[in-house]
Amino acid sequence: MTRFRTYMKHSLTGLAAAILLPHVSVASDALSEFDCVIEPGMTVELSSSEDGVLEQVLVDRGDRVEADQLLARLDSGVEEASLEYARERAAMEAEIRLHKASLSFGVKNQKRISELQQKKLVSHNDADRARTETKIERHKLQQAMENKRLAELELARATETLKRHAIHSPINGVVVERYLNPGESVEDRPVLKLAQIDPLRVEVVLPVAQFGKIQPGQPASVYPEAGIGGQFKTTVSTVDPVLDAASGTFRVRLMLPNPDNALTSGLRCKIKFDKQLVASESKKKGNHRMVEK
């Protein structure tokens, strides 16, 4: 009876091992491929730094835009008039020319009076008056030049004020959403939402068991969902150094070049990491520890 129980125990153990081994193998293979999501490289909600009413919105949802492209403009009639006034004022030089001529005459007059004073043909009072008038003209010329400099600064300020009424794209991308239309007030609300699609961002959530096995710079292959398909090579750009204790996971980010716009954001995908780099990195770390010993 005892032998029979022992035999049955060994038989059941072997059967269990035979049943479990294939599942372990499948799980091990599954760890080399993970679910991922392809997202925009970045998204930007554009607003105006100035309050006002929209005069033009030059793009709509789905339009492609380039960096520094004009996308929208606020009503800026007052600012344009102020700019023109400042431009004309900064260009005026009549006052400077007037004081330059007066100073030149004063210098010549002072020289003549000094010569006459040496011959005792004019009084000291007349000589002092000539020197003082020349000094006053010199100060007036300096004041005129300072006023022109202030006018130029006023022109620069008016130019920048007008620029703040125009909204330009900070990135190459596409318009995802248009929130406001001409005639509507901005009031710190976003006007447009842009998405960068070159490069795209691939986000992966991995179990804590993989922490330390994925390194920045590690090659990987991204397989977009059916309908797009294909294989796209990239490398790991960021590995979160902090784990999510609640889910027992951490996040990995990869930047995926998309110069031909063959891919779009919002796609689900599969990703496989190159294990060769992981093995070599582990080997390096092991050798490093051996050297330290």
Give a quick set of tags describing it:
293 residues, disordered N terminus, disordered C terminus, 43% helix, alpha+beta, three-stranded antiparallel sheet
Give your account of this protein's structure.
This protein is an alpha+beta fold. It is 43% helix and 27% strand. The protein has a six-stranded antiparallel beta barrel. Strands 2-4-5 form a three-stranded antiparallel sheet, with no helix packed on it. Helix 2 runs antiparallel to helix 4.
Unreliable stretches: 1-31, 278-293
What is the N-to-C succession of helices and strands? Answer: HEEEEHHHEEEEEEEH
Q: Which range best describes the helical content: under 10%, 10-25%, 25-40%, 40-55%, 55-70% or over 70%?
A: 40-55%
Main sheet: strand order: 1-7-10-9-8-11
Mean pLDDT: 83
Structural class: alpha+beta
Distance between the termini: 56 Å
What oligomerization state is this entry in?
single chain
Biggest pleated sheet: 6 strands, antiparallel, barrel
Give a brief outline of the structure.
With 293 residues, the chain is of the alpha+beta class.
Topology overview:
Elements: H1 2-30, E1 33-46, E2 54-57, E3 64-65, E4 70-74, H2 77-91, H3 94-118, H4 124-163, E5 166-168, E6 173-178, E7 192-207, E8 219-224, E9 232-239, E10 249-256, E11 267-273, H5 275-292
Helix pairs in contact: 2-4, 3-4
